[in-house]
Amino acid sequence: MSHASILLVALILDALLGEPDWLWTRLTHPAVLMGRAVGGLDRWLNKESKKRIKGVIVIALLTGIALSIGVLLAAFPGGDLIELVAATILLAHRSLCDHVRAVAKGLRISTAEGRRAVARIVGRDTDEMTDEAVARAAIESGAENFSDGVIAPAFWFLIAGLPGLLAYKIINTADSMIGYKTPRHAHFGWAAARLDDLVNWVPARLTATLILFAHFQSPKWQKLRGDARLHRSPNAGWPEAAMAGVLKVALAGPRSYHGELQDLPFVNRDGRHAVGAGEIDACVRALWRSWALTIGLVLLLAVA
Question: How far apart are CA 45 and CA 40, in angstroms?
């Protein structure tokens, strides 16, 4: 089977199955194993001097191991089946939509329930969030993670098969754990953050295009680029700006990390600022429409 054919089936299986609790309460998810590897190396090497050099070595080592495992697994008899299972497990569209939808359900109960639900999918402080801040955070997470959890791994699987998928996932996992400009990780996580920026450059822009095309909107590149540049990340702003545009809402804005308020600009600042559970539901529908367009494009590649 071609990579496109395998990816097509994996995308559909992920959408149908998600991440079943009966399985992952009995087995350790590969993403958890990746996180343990990053965490272990962080505790072991992130100390004393030469932290940036050590960080470069760590991300090179992890990426090399992921590539090697991917090559070995793909070479086994039944390699297509192994690739299919791995791709199904490491794509995360269904679980993303379920987690984002849970925030809308929580908000309809109370602000506190909305905060508890959104705290599971964002890294910012949630204790003092208003309903509007909870909703914006959920929508932003949905857009960004559609890129990181679906389109980027699919892109790298199409480019390089299972080795590309595993390498992308370990890089993205490392960035999510050590790629922050905190006193502990500013130097040690520098290489992981820069490499993550590189491997997400194309997928982030592709994700923005898919979101817009799925809603029959032609990209207004100048505005999209301008809004995307308001984000701290060179990539995350693209899908968030596209989602803000199709929902006609303002995203981002001031938020707090580790007790420190950051006065960040709004993306699509002329959009609606009064957002809530309804807009989160609209975001989930937008994610599924974008997924459907992705399925169509992968199908074309598979039959080409």
Answer: 9
DSSP state letters, 200-223: THHHHHHHHHHHHHHTT----HHH
Q: Is the pLDDT of residue 255 over 80?
A: yes
Q: What is the pLDDT of residue 181?
A: 85
CB neighbours of residue 75 within 10 Å = 10
Task: Please give the pLDDT value at position 9.
Answer: 98
User: So what's the pLDDT on residue 144?
Assistant: 97
Residue 252, domain extent: 3-303
HSE (CB half, 13 Å, CA atoms) of 2?
12
Q: pTM score, two decimals? A: 0.95
**Cα 275 to Cα 71: distance, rounded to the nearest angstrom:** 46
Q: Angle 3-17/79-90 helices, nearest 10 degrees?
A: 40
DSSP 8-state class, residue 125: -
Tell me what the mean pLDDT of segment 295-303 comes to: 97
Question: Cα separations (Å) of 194 from 92, 211, 248?
Answer: 23, 25, 31
Q: Specify which residues 257 forms β-bridges with.
A: 260
Residues in the chain: 304
Q: State the average pLDDT over residues 195-217.
A: 96
Closest CA to 54 of 145, 176, 185: 185
Q: CA–CA separation, 98 vs 34, rounded Å?
A: 23
Count of domains for the chain = 1
* Portion of the chain with pLDDT greater than 90, in percent: 86
- AA letter at 90: L
Whole-angstrom distance, CA of residue 215 vs CA of residue 290: 8
CA distances in angstroms from 164 to 83, 178, 191, listed in the order given: 11, 21, 18
| Mean per-residue pLDDT, 226-248 | 93
Backbone φ and ψ of 267, nearest 5°: -95, 135
User: What is the C-alpha separation between 59 and 232, in angstroms, rounded?
Assistant: 22
